[in-house]
Amino acid sequence: MGILITALISLVFLMSGYGFIELKLLKVKRYEISDTSVPDSLKGKRIALLSDLHCIYHGKNNIRLFRMLKAEKPDYIVLSGDVINGVERSELRYAFRLFRRLKRLNVPVFYTFGNHEEKLKDNDIRAYRRLKRYARKHLHLLNNRAYRLEDNSEVAFVGLSLPLWMYHGHDGNGLIKRRTDRILDRSDTRDCYKILVVHDPEHMDKYAESGYNLCLSGHVHGGIVYLPILGGLISPRLQIFNKKAKGYHECGKMKTVISGGIGWHDIPIRLFNHPEVVMISFR
Ligand SMILES: [Fe+2]
């Protein structure tokens, strides 16, 4: 019995140690979207999806992240929220540096706020407004806006930023459909191939009902510990073994790619769930 307990304790220590190391093992994860609804003009293009950075650096000034992006040469970059933690004004330095460096890559960058950017609104409204201004100056900030591509009018990136109360299990009473209709009508993008950039994948069925073709999101961090078949161990809504903690999923006609995230907060561990730059290519 004593040997068994010692072995168990050693295993927990070993796994925690590895979980700490894995936080730094940034890798590229690839997905391919092959679908009859993909316009020919989008085939061969590639999107880099970055999510949940939470002010984390991979190497000095995120050198590993940027080396990866330069090597991958994406046509578009999507930031699906939680660049910061939303606690202190000093976090803006991280965000501003990231925006400037992304801009220098000379590809369109589309950014939608996550729950942690929304938290900043409650903690420091002036910092929140500065973040918005700086993001608009350097990137395409898509908080409830759409952007029809200049070089490809058949494709639009649409960003939905959700209110904080919708991150706690509320389905919004039709808010997603109403908001989507307003955005699409205002931007005249209803007939486009619509790529939704939204932080929380939880409302996947509502996004699909609203007519999006592809949904790019994050938020769940792969469940911190990711076990094949079972899924992510923990989710922000405290579901155990969430199968939609990351990866590729289909919901009706809509395809979804959920990033496992680049950073972390609160629990500094990732197990079988390395931080990832997600590359999506179209066929
Ligand atoms: Fe989040």
Topology:
Layout: H1 2-22, E1 27-33, E2 46-50, H2 63-72, E3 76-79, H3 91-103, E4 109-111, H4 115-123, H5 125-138, E5 140-141, E6 145-148, E7 155-160, H6 175-187, E8 193-198, H7 204-209, E9 214-217, E10 226-227, E11 231-234, E12 240-242, E13 247-251, E14 254-258, E15 276-282
Parallel strand pairs: 1-15, 2-3, 3-4, 4-5, 7-8, 8-9, 9-14
Antiparallel strand pairs: 2-15, 6-7, 10-11, 11-12, 13-14
The structure holds fe (ii) ion.
Brief synopsis:
The chain is of the alpha/beta class.
Question: Would you mind describing this structure in some detail?
Answer:
The chain is an alpha/beta fold and 283 residues long. The protein has one domain (2-282): Metallo-dependent phosphatases (Purple Acid Phosphatase, chain A, domain 2). It contains seven helices and 15 strands. The strands form three sheets. Strands 1-15-2-3-4-5 form a six-stranded mixed β-sheet, with helices on one face. Helix 3 runs parallel beside helix 5 (125-138). The site of fe (ii) ion has 7 residues, from helix 4.
